[in-house]
Design a protein that fits this description.
The chain has 10 helices and 10 strands. By secondary structure, the chain is of the alpha/beta class. The protein has a 4-stranded parallel beta sheet, covered by helices on one side. Strands 7-5-9-10 form a 4-stranded parallel beta sheet. The longest helix is centred in the middle third of the chain and has 20 residues, at 119-138.
Length: 260
């Protein structure tokens, strides 16, 4: 007789992975989250918080005895993951770098938790929705435009072309500037701007994200001065940077932005 599969105790240290776990039906097995894991609110409020993505309360997390911890290369620190290995049986490391990578991410989580009720069906439904949205983006011949996506101010910070956000924008022909790649991990993935780069005058789309810095209407004039020839818009950072269940919604949102 095959022994029963142990009941998992899942901790998620990444907001988008927490939301994805709930979307897959894993809420009953979630025992820990970060304070930034805020969606869906009606579910996560009952899940204990263990600090932030960069400052995890390891002692509290250890006391919750997780069998699996969900982490991400960009969101969590290497030293945190190293410390987790001392008491967590299974650490699930994720690193989606494009919207299509969500398909592999769903397979990754289904591989770990597909024995639980409803998980394979929910994963399949999310894959169908994402595949349809990727096809919808590919079906349009988008004009190429230079884009600057700002995630921070003082100093201004943006995204390298090999990040998830940049590859989302590329789905509608928006090429992020500066034209650099940041590598597999580290600060180079999110370049800092001096504000006097000559190419700033050539930016056509300037997007101010709602996270991690909460840009609002009070920053529009300052941003316009940075890129005087660009159309400046506030955008939903969760839809454009969170992977998992928001990926399909984000692509639909992005197509609408590109059409207006």
């Amino acid at each position: 007789m095959t022994p029963p599969t142990p009941t998992p105790r899942i901790a998620s240290l990444v907001p988008s992975l927490t939301e994805l776990a709930v979307s897959l039906g894993l809420a009953p097995w979630l025992v820990a989250r970060t304070g930034f894991c805020i969606h869906p609110a009606e579910t996560v409020t009952a899940i204990p918080k263990v600090g932030g993505t960069k400052d995890v309360n390891l002692a509290k997390l250890r006391s919750l005895a997780p069998s699996h911890v969900l982490v991400n290369v960009d969101e969590n620190r290497l030293e945190t993951v190293t410390a987790l290995r001392e008491f967590v049986p299974e650490i699930i490391v994720t690193h989606p770098n494009s919207p299509a990578d969500n398909l592999a991410l769903l397979d990754q989580l289904t591989g770990h938790f597909g024995h639980l009720p409803g998980v394979p069906d929910r994963s399949a439904a999310l894959k169908v929705a994402l595949t349809e949205e990727l096809a919808a983006c590919a079906a349009t011949r988008w004009p190429e435009r230079r884009a600057l996506y700002l995630i921070w101010r003082e100093p201004w910070m943006t995204v390298a072309r090999d990040t998830y956000i940049a590859r989302m924008l590329d789905q509608v022909g928006w090429q992020t500037w500066p034209p650099v790649e940041g590598g597999p991990h580290g600060a180079a993935r999110y370049p800092t701007l001096g504000g006097n780069e000559p190419w700033l005058d050539q930016v056509e789309e300037l997007l101010l994200s709602s996270e991690p810095y909460r840009f609002d209407a009070s920053h529009l004039a300052e941003a316009q001065a940075l890129c005087p020839n660009a159309r400046v818009r506030l955008v939903d950072g969760e839809l454009l940077s969170w992977y998992g269940p928001r990926a399909a919604q984000g692509l639909a949102y992005l197509r609408e932005l590109a059409r207006t």
